[in-house]
Specification:
It is built from twelve helices and no strands. By secondary structure, it is mainly α.
Amino acid sequence: MKAWKAEFALLLVTLLWGATFLFTKIGLNDCTPSTFIIIRFFIAISLSLIFYSKSIFSIQKEVLLQGLVLGLLFGTGFVLQTYGLKYTSVSKSAFITGMTVPITPFVFKLIQKSKINKWSKIGVVVSTIGLFIFTKPDIYNINFGDIVTLLSTVFWAFYITLLDKYTKGKSDKNLTSQLVAMQFVAALLPALISFFIFDFSNFKFNLSNDLIIAIAFNAVMASFVATFVQTKFQRYTSPIKAALIFSLEPIFANIVAIIVINEILSFREYTGATILLCGLLISEIGPLLKKFFPKIEKI
């Protein structure tokens, strides 16, 4: 498969993730965070059993362990990000989560021991600047939520890199479905632990229409569908490019907010979004320039 097709699929995944900001915010009005996450992953597991039951029960030990590792990273990152949002602002959470972009190259180099091309490095720097301008975080007032959210980005960076390592060069559909199902199973563990530590004494669950819609979208589209697509297609691009694409999540979150609740972006946000997109384009188009301008690689 051509890389651009896979990267377009990851772009759609990022769009789904961006929409979860609004749906999660709505859902948490009627439900504690851990409960919301547990129901989300439980529905995703149920869908996996319905659609992938034949392949799941023939899973090999190696794939089982890989799925558990990915799921623990995925689930822990998600729990940390959700709880961090309780103590910090949406803009700071979006910016700190976007720091997965500059962290991923270091994790990639650590695990894969591969060189990172200079265009990806430039793209990471430019995208990080754009993300900072877009979110305008208050970095002078660091709180507990910021630290927890920053910790979650380390888990996301390892998740993106290991997903690449476990799936690169493989095209078996059964492998994809098995890894997806095991991720949801393993992701339940950190959610259950956080429930008993933080939410058990303040349990809240009001089955409103808003909560049903929020859980349905997050479980079906943003978990089951998005995780399958990411697991299937990320192998055809690099972890750094994947992280750059995922950095567009806060932009998509704002686009959804514009459509649903008529939020208007400011000039600063448009500027930041444009710079962020330029970073992604630099990473994509840069390697092609040497075909037309061979001397540019010597710069």
